[in-house]
Amino acid sequence: MVPCHAIWKGSDSWLNEDDWILESYQKGPGRVKAFYEHIARSAELATNDPHSLLVFSGGQTKLVSSTTEGESYLRLAQIAGILPDQTHSLPFGRATTESYAMDSYQNLLFSIARFHEFTGHFPTKITVVGYEFKRPRFMELHRTALRWPEAKFEYLGVDPEHDSGTNAVEGELQNGYLPYTQDKYGCHSTLLDKRRQRNPYSRFHPYYASSPDLIPLLDWCPGDESTLFEGPLPWDHSKIRQDT
């Protein structure tokens, strides 16, 4: 799974900032190259694992574009030729988009739901390809919030070449990691406001219908913001072993 961060406009280039719709804090040396590296690394992993499904996750987050982040990443991968052809005439069949996530927690949860929607079953292993400085957020907070087994979860981190130092780490700590320690499901105050601001077209996911086993988790928003979901999940340990 690749958590998307911006929308590629679909031009002939993908390493120029002008070819992306970016927030001001996303501009700077190496940022869009890092986006491309996330796409390329994930494509390589999917190509080498014939049992995998590559999911680019990111919603319709920009008022100036009707394209979703996930769709733009997949289109870039196809145009750049980093996804192989299965039959030399059809697109690579093991790559898809998750087009409703508005934050990193939803990137992970909704990608699991999209995997089920696409394949008819839940994954038995997850590999996330994203920023290295966001590794703790995914490994320690989002994975734990979903009670996904640590042994079945990997994170491949790729940071911008010139922007992986103190500023990026401190920004992630203050704006990502710490807020999620206080609101694990992103459904209160600050994180909820961010989620709403990133959804200018008021889109809503279809996973109640396509992944009904996840409805209790999709609806989970505890009054005590640090309370973990305790209901049954499709990836409980016994079910993971059975499906593998």
From TrEMBL:
InterPro entries with a match to the protein in the record: C57A10.07/YOR238W
* Any one of the GO CC terms: cytoplasm
What's the domain of life for this entry? Eukaryota
Q: What is this protein called?
A: DUF218 domain-containing protein
The species is Cyclocybe aegerita (Black poplar mushroom)
